Amino acid sequence: MKNKFLKAVFAIALGSALLTSCKPKSSGDAVSGDAAQKAYVAPGKYDEFYNFVSGGFSGQLSVYGLPSGRLFRVIPVFSVDPEKGWGYSEETKPMLNTAQGFVPWDDLHHTEMSQTNGEIDGRWVFGNANNTPRIARIDLKTFKTAEIIELPNSGGNHSSPFITENTEYVVAGTRFSVPGDYSNGDVPINTYKENFKGHISFVKVGKEGEMDLAFQIVTPGVNFDLSHAGKGKSHGWFFFSCYNTEQANTLLEVNASQKDKDFIMAVNWKKAEEYIKAGKGKKQSVKYAHNTWDEKTHTAKSEIKTEVLVLDSAELKDICYMIPCPKSPHGCDVDPSGEFIVGSGKLAALIPVFSFDKMQSAIASKQFEGDYGGIPVIKYEAALHGEVQKPGLGPLHTEFDGKGSAYTTMFVSSEVVKWDIKTLKVLDRVPTYYSVGHLMIPGGDSKKPFGKYMVAYNKITKDRYLPTGPELAQSAQIFDISGDKMKLILDFPTIGEPHYAQAAPADLIRNNGQLKFYKIADNNHPYATKGEKESKVVREGNKVHVYMTSIRSHFAPDNIEGIKLGDEVYFHVTNLEQDWDVPHGFAIKGADNGELLIMPGETTTLKWVPKKVGMYPMYCTDFCSALHQEMSGYVRVSPAGSNVPISYSVGTNLPATK
Amino acid sequence: MNKFSIYAVLFSFAFFASCGGDKSKSGQDESKPVTEETDAPASDPSSYDPHRGEGKFDSVELGASLDQAMASKGEEVAGVKCTSCHKITDEKLVGPGWKGVTERRKPEWIMNFITNPDPMIDKDPEVQAQLEICLVRMPNQGLSDDEARSILEYMRKNDGVK
User: Fold this and answer.
1) How far does A477 lie from chain B, in Å, by closest CA?
2) Contact at 8 Å (CB) between A387 and A353?
3) Among A467, A478, A470, which residue's Cα sits nearest to residue A40?
4) Where is this region: Disordered (chain B) (predicted)?
5) Does A11 touch chain B if contact means CB atoms closer than 8 Å?
6) CA–CA distance from A66 to each of A50, A459, B29, B34, B39 (Å)?
7) In the Cβ-directed half-sphere of A590, how many Cα atoms lie within 13 Å?
8) Is B142 in contact with A452 (Cβ distance < 8 A)?
9) Which residue in A83, A77, A81, A181 sits closest to A138, CA to CA?
């Protein structure tokens, strides 16, 4: 009897195991046999794509190879990086200046590559700062942050840095509406409805990439979440998802989740340009920083600007339209043809797909159901192409493969769902580990996707990697999407928390005129030392400027005396090398900032304030040659008021002979 | 284990197998990453000409007398790119001193070596012997043809050409 009972229990247990066994429990179930072959890039071989991944709360941008998942570089953008001297060298400090002063950290959520005719062109990648609202432009010839512009009237720059199809504009929308900087911000928080405003920013991008805040559009206070530009037929329009159309100012989790539908806001930016030409914008007094890097002086400058042109969405008709979208939409993605706009309502049980053509005829025939703060609201059905039914739980973001399919991440049900854009039928679904946020197909938000790989950027990894204490690895997963079924081929850990990403064919970047070194002849740094003969130490009051050179494997000068307590010493180190892959480092004992990492032909400055009398070794930190360990020197620090004169030398300061 | 549980186990195996069906399809896939060679492999060292060196210069015409202006230009370029490591006497600093170099080497060898050092360090027996002494590979300093030629003229001046 007992035996029979046990058998029954055993059978039931097996049965229930069977029922759940199709939900993969381990990588073994989800990975196909040839996965390793597909993700393997042999030593010395190159990857097929560069993958530019947002570093989330690290504030940086990371560069991986696809399909190998190998990390090539972390580009410092919004956060200081002592390893590269970013934010620590005198030259880079202005890059992190804002209207609030020097800000050493931010939260980079989204990357967007520049485009020409709607196709990725390999010139720049943009990144957004989500905390202190800014947009950065990273130059893909140098893999260096070349420019950062701050956005006034904004709080939480989340729906950014998306671009138009010829990189005419890069946009930003405030996630947290706030009273504009040109109005009084000292108001009770619960006056959100009357005093808080949304501002979306259009930043013009010039031929050389230079950014200029062209105009802002003021809207009722809501939370702008994500955006994408129209393309092809919808070029000239921009689409922003917004939530909290309830205008809650507390416990948004509940209070901003009341309405069944929020909005996708469609912005006719060409119309906005017409209004500006007609002089309809209002100049408002604000303060924001615009920081630029100069490749000739190897130095950043920060300029505070004081004016912005603002267009009123309620007053100036035909710029903005609201399209109702269920429910608290997050992702706002436009298919390669520019006809379909996918809104991903994170609390919705379906995915609405809007039609640009239908939206246009709805506007022409005034099929409105009212207005929202003076902005016409188009009837939902009038703009709707259709709905993807039962896609999964918690739709967030959609990318496209250029072959008629869309891929949407499902945060709550932890999966990516592939569906047909025209018929809206679900074609395939694949689990992710776990809780996927963004996803990326190379070129997947452009007119020309490269639909071979899809990468899921996950929020949770739980048991996927060896445990590392309370904080676990961040992770991405690569899927082969060249066939009908999505196939997981690789997990790889990432820095920070990965949000959105972009990718480009490797040749597009590596053949774009990659800079290998800075020509010493073109070095216009005011403290450049072009040759050892020019190296010197100059005292100006309590400031001491060291004009120093580095070459394999010594500094000149490498013996410095006459520094006194109370001095501020500036080491301006010029790397005289003129070859690829030969940076030199510079570090000195007690420096309370970072090291310098000086590229060939570059001049970089470390400020050093010695705090004690004594002997201070300095050395090269980047292994440069067989005699790297010899690449070092000494600085003698004497008491304040000492009469040791400034002296400096290399190779000649020898012991006195009797 | 009785029959019942054996069936149950078999059934569950079958189920697992059907869920992991992808494993059986392990054929070649065309979507293998496109990869490329990083650098062309070094050419056959036996073809190396130790008198000419390796590089773009086959023969370099020298004037009967020194071109003073060119030599001055060369001195200037050398000050930025060379003299951190080379003295103009015969004394070794990081690399060997320059005194007498234009007598030891053909002009095309010098021009090739200073514009294209890496392959020559790998192949030239005398440079390899020098590397054992200096232990620092001479860096490629990105000299233009004109700069290289002017440095050669400066070396000639240093060796007493008037």
Assistant:
1) 16
2) yes
3) A478
4) 21-57
5) yes
6) 6, 20, 17, 11, 20
7) 14
8) no
9) A77
Residues A523-649, CATH architecture: Sandwich (2.60)
Q: How far is B63 from chain A (nearest CA, A)?
A: 28
Choose among B8, B38, B79: nearest Cβ to A44. Answer: B38
Closest in B23, B83, B142 to A32, CB measured: B23
Nearest residue on chain A to B33, alpha-carbon basis: A48
Is-contact A133 A150, C-beta < 8 A?
yes
Residue B64 Cα, gap to closest chain A Cα (Å): 31
Residue spans of the domains in chain A: they are 36-75+390-514, 523-649
Per-residue pLDDT at A584 exceeds 50: yes
Contacts of B131 in chain A (CB under 8 A): none
CB distance A579–B33 less than 8 Å?
Answer: no
Q: What is the average pLDDT value for chain A, to the nearest integer?
A: 95
Model pLDDT for residues A467-500, shown as the tens digit of each residue: 999 999 999 999 999 999 999 999 999 999 999 9
The candidate with the shortest Cα–Cα distance to A381, out of A419, A355, A420, A409, is A355
Q: For residue range B74-103, list pLDDT tens digits in order.
A: 999 999 999 999 999 999 999 999 999 999
Domain B48-158 sits in CATH at 1.10.760.10
Query: Percent of chain A beyond pLDDT 70?
Result: 95
Dist. CA A474–CA A468, nearest whole Å = 11
Question: What ipTM is given for this predicted complex?
Answer: 0.74
Contact (CB<8Å) A41/B81 = no
Closest CA to A510 of B57, B97, B34: B34
